[in-house]
Amino acid sequence: MAILDVFLLEALINGVLLGGVLALLSLGLNLVFGVIDVVWICYAELIMFGMYGMYFLYTVYHWPLLVAAAVCIVGVGLLGVLLRVLVIAPLLGAAPINQLLATGGVLFFLQSAATVMFSIEFRNLGLRLPVLKVAGMFISYSRLLAFAAALIGMVLVYLFLARTYTGAAIRAIAQDRQIMVLMGVDTRRIYLITSALGGGLAGLAACLLVLQYDVHPFVGLSFGPITFLICVLGGLGNFGGGFVAAFVFAELISLGGLYLDLEWGYVFAFVFFIVMMFVRPEGLMARRS
Amino acid sequence: MTRYLGWIAGAGLVALPFVYQQPYHLHLMVVILLWSFAYTSWSVMGRFGLVSLGHGGFMGIGAYVTALAWNHGGLTPWIGIPLALLAGGILALLVAYPCFRFRITGHYFALVTLALSGIVLQVITATRDHTGGSLGYTPTRHQGGSSLYALQFTGKTTWYLIALAVWGAGLYVWYRVDRSMMRYALEAISEDEDGAAAAGVHVTAEKLKITVLSAMMTALAGALYCQYQMFISPDTVSGISISLQMVFAVVVGGIYVSLGPTVGAVITILLAEVLRISFGTRAVGWDNLVYGILLVLFIVFLPKGIVGSIMAAVRPRRAGRLAV
Amino acid sequence: MLELRSVRAGYGGFQALFDVSLEVRHGEAVGVIGPNGAGKTTLLRVISGLIRPTSGSIAMEGVDLVATPAHRIVAVGIAHVPESRRLFPRMTVEDNLKMGGFLPSARAKYQDRLAFVYELFPRLRERRRQLAGTMSGGEQQMCAIGRALMSDPKLLLLDEPSAGLAPVIVEQVFDLVKRIRAGGLNVLIVEQNVRQVLRVVDRAYLLKAGSIRAAGPASELLASETIREAYLGV
Q1: Residue extents of the structural domains in chain B
Q2: Is C98 close to A165, i.e. CB distance below 8 A?
Q3: What ipTM was assigned to the predicted interfaces of this complex?
Q4: Nearest CA-CA partner of C176 in C202, C139, C203
Q5: Direct distance between the N- and C-terminal alpha carbons of chain A, in angstroms, rounded to an integer
Q6: Which CATH code for domain A2-284?
Q7: Which residues lie across from C216 on neighbouring strands?
Q8: Does B155 touch chain A (CB under 8 A)?
Q9: What confidence tier does C232 reach under pLDDT thresholds 50, 70, 90?
Q10: Which of A100, A109, A110 sits opposite B107 (nearest CB)?
Q11: What is the CATH number of domain C1-74+155-161+187-234?
Q12: Domain boundaries, chain A
């Protein structure tokens, strides 16, 4: 009995740690959707490229870890801007579903580009971080680090949105796009900044994920669908909702993985999602439908 | 005149395998016909703005349920396939009902279905003890591979005719939907749900009907694919890539036109073959790479697809509203 | 300071303004009155850049507004309080005001302008952390005007400030406009409520079905028959 409790507690704690990173992921997606009204289906693939970036810079070229991380964050931020400029902006007049499908095309493209450039082998960062033993539980240091960094990232974004003029403009544009002009705001610039920010958050997530997981061209499939479910359940564009939903899903995955294979955790999460749709549809109502 | 053209072309297609026996080309035709059927199934709901990014899930269910029923349950595909269709339909109901009931449309619906296909893939991988996981799965050969009972045939001609018949049936269903009241109801719904509801349309019921129909057809495509190839794996029949491939092919071919998905299938499959032949084993990934770029380009420049754009130029019809 | 000449504008195929010419001179408060659908809101939108004119010229102190990108027009000194206020509902009063002061030139004066607005509207200071969408109509109107004032404009455009407000509140709003005016700000008010607006402005134009039908000092227009005809079709 005592051993079972320890494992359970460990799973719960790991769930919280995972939740932090998932919350970061959903923040990025929600930010872009809330402001620009487009879902980047290829968000997980942007992260995948960030992970490859970390692998090559740190493991292959032996750059210092923090420098590699900074470069990756900026790099994926640029990818976000490119996505906006090359794919989304040309589709501004079209039906919103077209923008969604176009990002689907980019998903395809990124996965295949990675396959072609890096092959399908799994790559590991090769960073051996210690595993802490706390009260009979094994908590991996990399998970703790990822959690802490994710929290810091989210706090920074919060401060940016709450305290700066650009942050205020980003929040405002999500609420009333048309009159931004009257405040002297160049909406195109705000969209670019938001795209860069969304990409940058993906880059940060990449740095954190690569600490714990191997990278391969299809690694996005492991956390992409979950991120979408989190955002939908929390309400697309609803930061607070996404935050809470992230932890709920993370616990489900963690507990599911405790008793069964890891994949079942995802299945539980999806079943939970379906059940929630029946039970609490308000949880799925975003500010915009 | 065009009506007779259709019949002549149809007769030609039926006669083809008796005249022309090259196995590789027949194989290509079978694959094209099966995928055309799958893509047509998707477009049956896609054309009404119900863009599902999860049809890979239904195809996977169709394939795996049939194969598992045969290998583990000893059930002939004649029973297994209906079971697979049922499973696909139930899953569609389970996911679509809450979506439609609570007005989850557009982005939300696309995301939920996207997650669905991802989850189906996860389930297949998780049950690896039964399904072989990512390594794939093979239905056991029965009586040397040619058996009506097991729905397995070695002759390409037989499969060609089966695929042709199913493809034709798919088109027939498409036409029936096109000429039905359901079509007008769904078009009204895609334009203005509240308005349609006010006019007396049972919004949720209509959407559910078309979704279940589309899901079951797609499951059938998966089941037949399994019986034909005699090998399935999560990435070849399910998952996000397959889902996106479906959307891509229909977008390229033309979403509002009956033969659009077929044209899309022809283009994508031939493209993949050409790339495979030119690049050899190094082609892994190149075909999807090209798809990805083409999908984006098509959406930006030719949202009506090839067939749709041609038809719009030749015979201007009412432009599409919500979807592509 | 503001001059419109033969401005035509509309939405898609629908033309709303036909050869409208008007001006606001330094130190003036000008009103534009007219019945529903006359094009009054379109008029203000075309000045502030929300929509672009199809022909004609608009100049503010010599600066050609038609050639100016829409988001730079506020930097020229024009602040627009839109119809139905259009506050950011899920942002606080103070954040809304902050958005009003988004311009770099306004940011430098942020604290001063904020103090000015709070002095003008003490109720806003009380409610500064309240979400704008939860306030009453009158409070929202004050917040909207305050937001426009944050950019320290030379000309304030007010679109139907009385819309949706109780008569008592409407009185307060127009008293406020008088005070702002007295402080030296130029005002162009578009309004359906003839009596209230003509109290406050020096001159007014009558806009009906997209064309200017009459113009003159407020007192004259108040007394004239033309207005009654325009509104009642009598």
Answers
A1: 22-234
A2: yes
A3: 0.87
A4: C139
A5: 48
A6: 1.10.3470
A7: C204
A8: no
A9: low
A10: A100
A11: 3.40.50.300
A12: 2-284
Q: Calculate the average pLDDT of chain C.
A: 87
Give residue limits of the domains in chain C. Answer: 1-74+155-161+187-234, 78-153
Q: Which two tokens stand for residue A86?
A: 């090359």
| pTM for this predicted structure | 0.85
Q: How far apart are CA A207 and CA A202, in angstroms?
A: 9
Whether the Cβ atoms of residue B227 and residue B71 lie closer than 8 Å to each other? no
CA–CA gap between residue A173 and residue B123 (Å, rounded): 40
**C6's torsion region: left (phi>0), alpha (psi -120 to 50) or beta?**
left
Does residue C61 sit in helix, strand or coil?
coil
pLDDT at residue A282, rounded to an integer: 57
Q: Residue A181: its chain C contacts at CB < 8 A?
A: 48-50, 70-71, 73
Contact C99 A172 (CB under 8 A): yes
**C12 Ramachandran zone, left/alpha/beta (phi>0; psi -120 to 50):** left
Give C-chain residues touching A287 at CB under 8 angstroms.
90
Residue-wise pLDDT for A58-103, tens only, equals: 988 989 989 999 999 999 999 999 999 998 888 887 776 778 888 8
Residues 6+ apart with CB under 8 A from C194: C33, C222, C227, C231
Distance from CA of C102 to the nearest CA of A (A): 6
- Smallest CA–CA distance, residue A64 to chain B, in Å, is 32
What tokens does A283 get? 């949880």
Of A97, A112, A281, the CB nearest to B324: A97
Task: Determine, for residues B289 and A112 on separate chains, whether the beta-carbon distance falls below 8 Å.
Answer: yes
pLDDT at position A287 over 50: no
Between positions 76 and 135 of A, the ones with CB within 8 A of B are: 87, 90-91, 94-98, 100-102, 104-116, 120
